[in-house]
Amino acid sequence: MAQTEAVIFDLFETLITEYAHGSRKVSRKSRNFHNLIGLSNSEFQQQWNERQVMRMNGGFPTYRAVMMDILEKNDLPFDELIIENLYQERIREKKVPFVDMDKDVISLLKLLKSEHVKLGLISNCTEEEVQGWSDCPLGDYFDAVVFSYQVGYAKPDAAIYELACSRLGVDPKHCMFVGDGGSNELAGARSVGMDVYQAAWYVPDSISCKITGFPKLKKPIELYERFQARQ
Q1: b/e code 98-131 from CB counts within 10 Å (16+ = b)
Q2: Assigned CATH topology for domain 6-20+97-230
Q3: DSSP labels, 15-52
Q4: Could you tell me if 167 and 186 are in contact, meaning their C-beta atoms sit under 8 angstroms apart?
Q5: CB 151 within 8 A of CB 163
Q6: What is the sign, positive or negative, of the torsion defined by CA atoms of 192, 193, 199, 200?
Q7: Are 76 and 35 contacting, i.e. CB atoms less than 8 angstroms apart?
Q8: Which residues make Cβ contacts (< 8 Å) with residue 180, sequence separation at least 6?
Q9: Where are the domains of the chain?
Q10: pTM value?
Q11: Which residues contact 95 (CB under 8 A, 6 or more apart)?
Q12: Long-range CB contact pairs, 104-108, < 8 A, 24+
């Protein structure tokens, strides 16, 4: 078994979570896209999801660019003030998970750093989703941070894992990767030779059980125990 030189983390639903007690920390129930832009909430969500890949890999460089494309494709007017308000609302929503850090996650990061192991982060995200990163305490623990929208590719593309390893100066086979499993990220990490674990401490069992073939960790400390076993 190769000795671990680096541990690479996913961000959302691994280090931070947008949910509490089974619901989003910031409710979206009052948002009415039909009144705002002329699409029902379900129609907008479908359009938003269809642009997932290009939102994550920087094909749409800004929130404004995504919204402009949606509105143009549906022959709807573009109101600068409405779009700016939606953008600011999204920033506020996405900053919330960065405010209250899980003490168990922080303890895990401290333990790993005490072992002099390098820590990396790979997140599929857009610019507005990670504006809270620079002000949160997590950044102090990481040696390399890769945001998909900045580099032009996203998980599970092998290139994004290889880039993170390159920035850390380690070979993928000497890396552990942990994430909740969204975007097929676990299979992507395994494909480049990483030792892969599913973070199941935030994700409900009804969802995490749909991902199989990877060790499930129910508490952050379990990752440290796995790390120690590899040394």
Answers
A1: beeeeeebeebbebbbeeebbbbbbbbbbbbbbe
A2: Rossmann fold (3.40.50)
A3: TB-SEETTEESS--TT--HHHHHSS-HHHHHHHHHHTH
A4: no
A5: yes
A6: positive
A7: no
A8: 10, 12, 13, 14, 198, 199, 200, 202, 203, 208
A9: 6-20+97-230, 23-96
A10: 0.96
A11: 131, 132
A12: 104/201, 104/219, 104/220, 104/221, 105/15, 105/16, 105/220, 106/137, 107/220, 107/221, 108/220, 108/221, 108/223, 108/224
CB within 8 Å of 22: residues ≥ 6 apart: 204
- Smallest CA-to-CA distance from 168 within 4, 16, 56, 58 is with 4
Integer Cα distance of 63 and 169 in angstroms: 33
Tokens of 165: 């390893």
At residue 181, the 3 state secondary structure works out as coil
Identify any residues that bridge with 175 across adjacent strands, giving them in sequence order.
6
Give me 158's structure tokens: 């092998």
CA distance 189 to 181: 10
Q: For residues 99 and 216, is the Cβ–Cβ distance under 8 A?
A: no
- Phi/psi at 199 (5° precision): -80, 110
Tens of pLDDT along the chain (231 residues) come to 679 999 999 999 999 999 998 899 998 888 899 999 999 999 999 999 999 999 999 999 999 999 999 999 999 999 999 999 999 999 999 999 999 899 999 999 999 999 999 999 999 999 999 999 999 999 999 999 999 999 999 999 999 999 999 999 999 999 999 999 999 999 999 999 999 999 999 999 999 999 999 999 999 999 999 999 988
Residue appearing with tokens 């642009």: 51
